[in-house]
């Protein structure tokens, strides 16, 4: 299997991680420690993320305005996560920050990144 094929194989996992992390039409609501899901169908791999994983993502966004990295492991699912959040910056939308999340399972890594802006106590993914 060549590298491109391997990356394509991880695409559903990357999409699932992004969906569960708040990308697309979802947002992280720090006040309720919950990732609010859209009505989109979740990929089977995406269901591997537990409520505890979602809470860690929620906590990462709420972790202060400076640059920081949050790492955690889901030992039940054998997945290691790293989330890097850039410092908060001001925009017309309000406070925003760029982020990157990486999931490692079975020695395979997938990364995704985006920009989220704070709105009404939660962080909405805008890019």
UniProtKB/TrEMBL annotation:
<protein>
    <recommendedName>
        <fullName>Surface antigen domain-containing protein</fullName>
    </recommendedName>
</protein>
């Amino acid at each position: 299997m060549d590298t491109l094929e391997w990356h394509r194989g991880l695409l559903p996992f990357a999409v699932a991680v992004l969906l569960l992390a708040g990308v697309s039409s979802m947002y992280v609501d720090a006040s309720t420690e919950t990732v609010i899901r859209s009505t989109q169908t979740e990929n089977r791999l995406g269901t591997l993320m537990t409520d505890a994983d979602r809470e860690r993502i929620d906590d990462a966004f709420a972790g202060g305005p400076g640059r920081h990295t949050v790492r955690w492991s889901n030992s039940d699912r054998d997945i290691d996560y790293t989330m890097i959040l850039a410092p908060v910056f001001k925009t017309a939308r309000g406070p925003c920050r760029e982020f990157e999340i990486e999931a490692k399972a079975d020695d395979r890594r997938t990364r995704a990144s985006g920009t989220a802006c704070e709105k009404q106590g939660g962080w909405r993914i805008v890019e």
